[in-house]
Design goal:
By secondary structure, this protein is mainly beta. It has one domain (18-187): Immunoglobulin-like. Helices cover 13% and strands 38% of the residues. The strands form three sheets. A five-stranded antiparallel sheet has the order 1-2-5-9-8, covered by helices on one side. Strand 6 and strand 7 form a beta hairpin.
Length: 197
C-alpha cells in the first residue's frame, strides 16, 4: 500500500522567485517526459508515495561502466543475473529527480524473498534512477516493496524546504517480471562514427 500523497508548497520565497520556480517545474516536466518514455519502452509503473513520485521498471540484466584504478572499465552483469530493477524517484510537487536517497527494495515471488537490498544511484543517458542487477527464479508476477528513508542532505528555503521529513513506503504488487540479459556491447557492431576501443 502506498503512502498517502501529499505535496509541499512551491511558493515564491527569499530563495526562489516565481520565474525560478517555473524553471524548476520545467526541469521536472522534462524528467516526467523521460519517465513516460521509460513507461512506453519498458512498462514503468508510477505511483505517488508521500512527497515522491516513485517509478518501477524491470528490464534485462545489463553491464555498466564503473571506475577501476582511476579509469572507467566496463563490467558485465554477474553471470547469474537475469534481471535489472530500476526505481526512479521524483518530487511530487515539481517533478524533478531526487538524488542522494537511501532506496531499499524487497522483491518477493510466491512468498519467497528474491531480493532485499539498498539500490545505488545509476547514471542513465535519459533517466536518472536507482537500480541493480539481480537473479530471479523465472518469469511471473512479483511483489516489490520500496522503502525510502528521509534524506540526510540539507534543504534550502524557509517556505519550500520543509520536505522529505518522513520515511516512505510504496508497494508494487503482481508486477510481471521477465528474465533476460542485454548483449555485451563488444558483441554488437559499433554505430557509425564510433571510435574503436
Amino acid at each position: 500500500m502506498s503512502t498517502p500523497g501529499s505535496t509541499p508548497p512551491m511558493d515564491a520565497s527569499n530563495e526562489a522567485d516565481p520565474g525560478q520556480l517555473d524553471v524548476a517545474r520545467a526541469e521536472g516536466a522534462a524528467y516526467r517526459k523521460a519517465l513516460e518514455a521509460m513507461r512506453e519502452e519498458s512498462g514503468a509503473v508510477i505511483k505517488q508515495a508521500g512527497e515522491f513520485l516513485v517509478a518501477l521498471v524491470q528490464e534485462d540484466a545489463e553491464g555498466m561502466y564503473a571506475l577501476q584504478d582511476g579509469h572507467l572499465a566496463w563490467h558485465e552483469a554477474p553471470e547469474d543475473a537475469n534481471g535489472h530493477l530500476e526505481i526512479a524517484v521524483a518530487d511530487a510537487s515539481d517533478g524533478r529527480f531526487v538524488p542522494g536517497l537511501d532506496v531499499t527494495v524487497t522483491v518477493t515471488s510466491g512468498g519467497e524473498k528474491v531480493l532485499d537490498t539498498t539500490l545505488p544511484f545509476l547514471w542513465h543517458p535519459f533517466l536518472y534512477h536507482y537500480g541493480t542487477n539481480f537473479t530471479m527464479p523465472g518469469a511471473g508476477d512479483y511483489d516489490v516493496q520500496v522503502h525510502i528513508d528521509p534524506p540526510q542532505f540539507m534543504r534550502h528555503d524557509p517556505i519550500n524546504g520543509k520536505r522529505y521529513e518522513h520515511p516512505v513506503e510504496v508497494a508494487f504488487l503482481t508486477v510481471p517480471f521477465n528474465p533476460g540479459r542485454k548483449p555485451s556491447p563488444e558483441a554488437q557492431p559499433r554505430a557509425q562514427g564510433t571510435p574503436a576501443g
